[in-house]
Amino acid sequence: MPDSGAMKRSKQKPGRKPTCRPMGLNTLRMIRARLARQRLSLETAWSPRMSAFVLAALATAFVAGLGDEWSIDLVNRSASPVVDSLESITDIALARWYFYPAALVALVLGLVDWSGRSRLTRLYLTFVFGQALFVAASVLLVRSITRTLKIAFGRQRPELMHEDGAYEFELFEFDNLYWSFPSGHAAIAGVATIVLILWFPRARLLLLPLGAILATSRVAAVEHYPSDVVAGFSIGALVTILLARWLASRALIFRHRPGKLIPGARWPRSGRQSPGTGDG
Fold first, then answer.
1. Per-residue pLDDT reduced to its tens digit, 108-133
2. Model pTM?
3. How confident is the model over 13-28, as a mean pLDDT?
4. Secondary structure (DSSP) of the chain
5. pLDDT confidence band for 18 (50 / 70 / 90)
């Protein structure tokens, strides 16, 4: 006589609902596996163009530093509405406006079940998940670097300039009044600018000046010297580009563009890299 329990189990099997799994976490496991691989692309994360970028940033910061004191004096004497407008937008470059939304998007997509979605939808969700992780990681990494440098250099902020001058440093100082170099806001502006250029390379000639204006607002707010701003923006841009190139070398999230410093986003559609990839 057939086992009734076995028959019951066999009847239940076809109707069993599939287990809901957080597909974003599956994607994260795939990313971790890719990261563990050797470099897949012929292009390296660091290139001669990266070295040229660093040298240009150092030279620009040095030249800007020659006018640090003059710039702050000019801002303090100015009654221009342009300075007031720049000061009003400075907090757009706060790290929290970028880190928390990106981390939240990655967390939500990591916990949602994608199994019932179409293949194209899953591709887009994977793209958004990966880009959100990239933005969160870039902001966190850049913020950690700039905070460490602030403490190490201990440069006085402009509000103390008339006491000790514009070039006073107290090494390894934990007081916020000595955290002028480099500018953390400018560094986040650099991150945001490069992220947008990664997604929309055709708009780079518009995005770069906008990012520079946002970074310069720290001088208008009399929170940083021009050299702090140049250094901060350069660090944010450099770290973001380097991370994107490193991921592109492993065929993750981005792909290298021949002869270009900044890679392009790996958009879901076949043959599509990012809007306007052909330019720049």
1. 988 887 777 788 888 888 899 999 99
2. 0.84
3. 54
4. ---HHHHHHHHHTTTPPPPP--HHHHHHHHHHHHHHSPP-SSS-SS-HHHHHHHHHHHHHHHHHHHTHHHHHHHHHH---HHHHHHHHTGGGG-THHHHHHHHHHHHHHHHS--TTS-HHHHHHHHHHHHHHHHHHHHHHHHHHHHHHHHHHH-BPPGGGHHHH-TT-B-TT--SGGG--SS-HHHHHHHHHHHHHHHH-GGGHHHHHHHHHHHHHHHHHTTSS-HHHHHHHHHHHHHHHHHHHHHHHTTTSSEE--TT-SS-EE--SSTT--STTTT--
5. very low
